[in-house]
Write a structure and sequence with these properties.
Radius of gyration: 25 Å
Number of domains: 2
Largest sheet: 6 strands, antiparallel
Number of strands: 8
Oligomer: single chain
Distance between the termini: 95 Å
């Protein structure tokens, strides 16, 4: 049965089509919109491809192109976890920012007071898990563990790794909590992303990354775009890959010491 709302919607649709067909100005506008769309879509695809290449990410690894594309355009943070689920995100307030030499003492004191007066207490960044399907596992997000190495040694090696990476900068290292707050600056557009690394007493190293555009104090219009095109996942991957050779050297040295102690 045709109801009044259906009739109204059909009438409006016919009216819009008639106006756009019969009025030359509307035809001109429609044509320009279509041409603009044909121009913007390839540009957007190319920009996304370049961004993923720069982030050392691809849509063709696990869990598959569909899941990765959806994640890269809808999520702007990531965290390593035992499961490696892509649905694990980071929740954190304003991380400490790097001070510039031109920053005056009054501004520094004002910034410190504002940070101290924040309602949200400072705490270690914890990954927050949401229900995830079995096909949501990202190899880059599997948390790494290094048993047999002291927490202090892992903390120092993590700092050395960060210092060896281009674009990374430590803004605060807390040996009491074995936590390192970092800023990653992109090479072209100079966007800043937040990365927090925490060495656990168990020998596991948590890495959590969030787009700087997702900070509570962000003012850029780009903050309304929900995805980071794989940047957060790429930062976690980059850190772990740079850390692995250093850990291999530590284990090799320990093995050599053990072999030297054995009677010949």
């Amino acid at each position: 049965m045709i109801t009044p709302p259906v009739i109204v919607v059909a009438f409006l649709a016919i009216a819009v089509i008639a106006v756009m067909t019969l009025v030359p100005f509307m035809r001109l506008v429609l044509g320009r919109i279509v041409r603009l769309a044909f121009f913007l879509i390839p540009v957007a695809v190319a920009a996304a491809g370049i961004a993923m290449i720069m982030n050392d990410e691809t849509i063709f690894e696990r869990p598959g192109p569909q899941q990765r594309v959806v994640r890269f355009v809808t999520m702007n943070s990531a965290a390593a976890s035992p499961s490696g689920y892509g649905s694990v995100i980071c929740e954190v307030g304003n991380l400490p920012q790097a001070a510039t030499p031109a920053e005056s003492a009054p501004k520094k004191r004002a910034a410190e007071e504002a940070l101290a007066n924040q309602r949200e207490p400072r705490r270690r960044l914890e990954p927050v898990a949401t229900p995830a399907p079995l096909d949501d596992v990202y190899p880059e997000l599997l948390r790494r563990g290094y048993p047999g190495i002291s927490r202090q040694k892992l903390f120092q090696l993590s700092q050395d790794t960060i210092n060896s990476l281009g674009g990374w900068k430590i803004v605060k290292a807390d040996p009491r909590n074995s936590t390192i707050d970092c800023i990653y600056t992109t090479r072209i557009f100079k966007f800043e992303d937040d990365v927090r690394i925490t060495v656990q007493a168990s020998g596991e190293i948590d890495v959590c990354s969030r787009s700087g555009l997702a900070r509570p104090a962000a003012t850029s219009l780009l903050r309304y775009f929900p995805g980071d095109l794989g940047a957060s996942v790429g930062h976690i991957k980059e850190f772990y890959e740079a850390l692995e050779p250093k850990m291999d050297e530590v284990y090799k040295e320990e093995q050599d010491r053990q072999n030297a102690k054995k009677p010949h």
